[in-house]
Amino acid sequence: MAGFSRTGCITTRLCYEGTMYESFYNLHAKPFQLSPDARFFYNSRGHKRAMSYLRYGITQGEGFIVILGGIGTGKTTMVQALFDQLEDDGIIAAKLVTTQLEADDLLRLVATSFGLPDNGASKARLLTQLEAFFVEKSREGKRVLLVVDEVQNIPIKSLEELRMLSNFQIGGTALLQIFLLGQQEFIKTLQADGLEQLRQRIIASHYLKALESDEVKGYIEHRLTSVGWKGDPLFDETAYREIYSYTSGVPRKINTLCDRLMLFGYLEEIHQFDANIVKVVTSELQGEITSVQKESPVLPRQESKVSQKLVDVEQRLCVLEEKVSDFSEGFKSQRSLLARLWPSAGDKNH
Fold it and tell me: Is the pLDDT of residue 339 over 70?
């Protein structure tokens, strides 16, 4: 096996060699990336049930579908997979990924998500534009779907605006359907006194749980196969059990661990993983958290809070990674708009 110094842990070489294991294992892409990708969607029992609710909602063509779940359980990846399936179904779908917005700003984001111009329009003008867009698509035989991610962050007034959008109808047929995705905290939000009408419009809901222990093997091998895996590296049954033990079946945690495991395998020239090797890597990961805790003096009773903060930071970084691609097109349109409004400013930049 190649030499490996544990003095600096895996992280000392992570930036330089973080993507080189694909070549070592003859893979054509990174199998355990954190950013959601529909090609990696794994139809576990829980995800299959949640997807069935989403598909049911689409057949109904109205109301709200609510899918909640813990952080990293694969809600966003599932919706991306759904979008891929909807391409030929005559459905115009858009997704909101920034939800900590007040009512008027949320309406602007909805409009731009469907490709409508903003141009500083008033709320009344935005609603008129949206209704006209919904009616136009209905007359073309198409349906409009809005997916709102991280819904637990939305202020109650903004949720009311979403409900008002769902009021748009033509000939008794709803013009917009809305899927709400988020974390369990949203349940408390839904209990607010001012949201009774929204609660009445929820036609289906589901709580997405982590993978069961017997699903971890299928999940890992699905992601590996998606990037050309031919059995190298090989995971034995003890490795799968240890991975589940460390991650509790949370897909994002599995991805993080397996990515580091593959890197370790590349550095040590390992072609078969067992429980002992997995434990070495999980020990490295735990050691990194511990070293951060030591650098920040805290009282013993605060250590669990620090660990949670570290997890929260990682989760936010994952969300940011996910949002970069979604925002890129939006930035382009904003630059185009600024160039039209202030052409002289655009000239100065060249």
Answer: no
Read off the pLDDT of residues 133-187 as tens digits, 9 standing for 90 and up.
999 999 999 989 999 999 999 999 999 999 999 999 998 889 999 999 999 999 9
Task: Note the pLDDT tens digit of each residue in 42-87.
Answer: 999 999 999 998 888 888 888 999 999 999 999 989 988 988 887 6
Tokens 């839904």 found at: 190
Neighbours of 301 (CB within 10 A): 7
Residue 123 pLDDT > 50: yes
Closest CA to 165 of 87, 103, 239: 103
Output the DSSP codes for 183-206. Answer: -TTHHHHHTSGGGHHHHHTEEEEE
Strand partners of residue 206: 67
Q: Are 255 and 34 in contact (CB under 8 A)?
A: yes
Mean pLDDT of the chain: 81
273 Rama sector, left if φ>0, alpha if ψ -120 to 50, beta otherwise: beta
- DSSP letter for each residue of 121-172: --HHHHHHHHHHHHHHHHHTT-EEEEEESSGGGS-HHHHHHHHHHTT-EETT
Q: Which CATH number is 45-208's, of 3.40.50.300, 3.30.470.20, 3.90.1150.10, 1.10.150.130?
A: 3.40.50.300
